[in-house]
Amino acid sequence: MQNFINRNYVWASLSSIFICISVLTYLVNATFAIKVSVYLGVIFLVLTMLPTNILKLNLSFLSNYKNIIITGVRFRRDAGIICGFLFATHSIMSIVYFYGFSLDFLFSKEIFLGTTALIVFLLLLVTSNLFSMKFLGKWWKELHKTLWIIIPVVLVHSIVASLAFEGEISKLGLLSFGFIMAFTIIELVIQYSKNAKIKTTYHSIYTIIGLIASVAITIFFLLSQSK
Ligand code: HEM
């Protein structure tokens, strides 16, 4: 029991606090709360993805910060779960605010990519436990790699949705998800310049696949709309 509490208290307490903050903000200003939840989530997404990958790059100028990065690696599961809950909060708030409890969002072209991202994040969230890790075996890692495909999907979703609902492109969405995508290129450049034996090519390949798929879907929707 003590083990169970030790493994889960960080994400459980922080998720509750951040969800409460988002809900309270929603009661005052719903559109702002929709942004607050998603950007708090982005902070934890970056904390989930970057420390492990930065550590692997073994960069000499970061050697003084190694302990901080290792702490980040230790808490990456907590950060991942918190970001999953915050993205789910953003999705639920958006559905309630813009679609009023109806299932219309499922057929909305503006939201299709967001719904796709939500399904993937929920899958990752429910499998973020020891039982799922043991049950899925090597497939667990494969499933969790899909995060890299979904980053560009969210980037395109943030552009399409903010244009449709606010009339302007979300700069923060562009910056935050663009930064994670740019990291995959920087990572490859560093690995090639250091002649690293193992190069992490799947990060960039997956993000390119996600980008091509989401741009193609968006163009398809635009063309079918103009007919
Ligand atoms: C069913 C699922 C989802 C729905 C209904 C939805 C809905 C929306 C809506 C309506 C907006 C425009 C809000 C505005 O500009 O005022 C938006 C923006 C955004 N969404 Fe989603 N979303 C969903 C899932 C997701 C997921 C899973 C993520 C992240 C992983 C995400 C990330 C973003 C981002 C970054 C923005 C831009 C926010 C801004 O700066 O304006 N969305 N979403």
Question: Topology, please?
Answer:
Blueprint: H1 2-28, H2 30-57, H3 66-74, H4 76-99, H5 112-126, H6 130-136, H7 138-145, H8 147-166, H9 171-193, H10 202-226
Helix pairs in contact: 1-2, 1-4, 2-3, 2-4, 2-9, 4-5, 5-8, 6-7, 8-9, 8-10
The structure holds protoporphyrin IX containing FE (HEM).
Residues 31, 34-35, 38, 87, 90-91, 94-95, 98, 105, 111, 114-115, 117-118, 121, 154, 157-158, 161-162, 165-166, 170, 172-173 line the site of protoporphyrin IX containing FE.
Give an account of the 3D structure.
- The chain is mostly helical and 227 residues long.
- The chain has one domain.
- The protein has 10 helices and no strands.
- The mean pLDDT is 93.
- The site of protoporphyrin IX containing FE has 27 residues, from helix 2, helix 4, helix 5, helix 8 and helix 9.
- Protoporphyrin IX containing FE (HEM) binds next to helix 2, helix 4, helix 5, helix 8 and helix 9.
Summarize the structure.
Helix content is 82%, strand content 0%.
> Which term fits the overall shape?
globular
Assembly form of the protein: single chain
Order of helices and strands: HHHHHHHHHH
The number of domains = 1
Name the beta content range. under 5%
What summary fits the major beta sheet?
Answer: none
Q: Point out poorly predicted stretches.
A: none
Helix content: over 70%
Helix/strand/pairing category: mainly alpha
Distance between the termini: 60 Å
Number of helices: 10
What is the β-strand count?
0
Bound heterogens, unique? protoporphyrin IX containing FE
What is the radius of gyration computed over CA atoms, rounded to a whole number of angstroms?
Answer: 18 Å
Mean pLDDT: 93
